[in-house]
Amino acid sequence: MSQSECKLRGKFITFEGIDGAGKSSHLAAAAALVRDQGRRVLTTREPGGTALGEKLRDLLLREAMHRETEALLMFAARREHLEQVIEPALERGDWVLCDRFSDATFAYQSGGRGLDREKFAQLEQWVHGHVQPDLTLLFDLPWTVAGLRIAAQARARDRFEQERADFHERVRLAYLERAAIAPQRFAVIDADQARDVIQKWVEQTILVRCL
Ligand code: TYD
């Protein structure tokens, strides 16, 4: 067996939650933790993560479109991301920490927009039937809290952040539903807690479940 065949595949960890849940800053801290354990880590995001994916992200965050177009573009960006970035990194033995993945499409396009779930399932199977995250951290909190956090930030809101409260609550419920279907993959935290409490939980969860 060659050296590359012996090499252990890296871990694939995704960070999910409604807008304003705080997942992105916890991703950065988690990357530092995993690096401290001597692993090579790649941090990335969806939609995006490749040159083409970032162009699609720009469209997705700004242009109004049919919900199926939205879902197809999310998966188109994901196809590139898997092929160019995620799969090669995991095969090299690197860990991949990704800000959102297909659970976001389930939550936002199916839960939020009402995309047919069978169509979601077909796209997921088509684009990455063979790959799922090893661990998905879901930062859960009500929109009443998350929306206030976003309102306090001095920056323009994207197309999703501008949606009404009922949209965000549907996204939240869809995330929780998805977590309940795959409890072995998901870990869910109440994200309406002090930042250091959540960070400790993130560290513990990764140490226990992946290292
Ligand atoms: P987000 O991680 O919130 O970016 P930022 O932290 O820079 O605001 O992602 C951008 C938006 O894209 C977010 O509102 C959720 C949305 N989204 C979907 O609707 N479906 C998807 O499949 C993905 C990956 C993201």
From TrEMBL:
Keyword list (alphabetical) reads: ATP-binding, Kinase, Nucleotide biosynthesis, Nucleotide-binding, Transferase
Keyword match ATP-binding: yes
Domain Thymidylate kinase-like: from-to ranges:
15-199
Q: Which GO terms describe its biological process?
A: dTDP biosynthetic process; dTTP biosynthetic process; dUDP biosynthetic process
Q: Which reaction does it catalyse?
A: dTMP + ATP = dTDP + ADP
Tell me the SUPFAM superfamilies matching this sequence.
P-loop containing nucleoside triphosphate hydrolases (SSF52540)
Annotated ATP binding sites: G17, I18, D19, G20, A21, G22, K23, S24
Q: Name one GO molecular function term.
A: dTMP kinase activity
* HAMAP family, alphabetized: Thymidylate_kinase (MF_00165)
Record family assignment: Belongs to the thymidylate kinase family.
Q: Which organism is it from?
A: Candidatus Accumulibacter proximus
Task performed by this protein: Phosphorylation of dTMP to form dTDP in both de novo and salvage pathways of dTTP synthesis.
EC number(s) on record? 2.7.4.9
Q: Name one GO cellular component term.
A: cytosol
Tell me yes or no: is ATP-binding among this UniProt entry's keywords: yes
Q: What is this protein called?
A: Thymidylate kinase
Q: Which Pfam families match?
A: Thymidylate_kin (PF02223)
Q: Give the top-rank taxon of the lineage listed in the UniProt record for this protein.
A: Bacteria
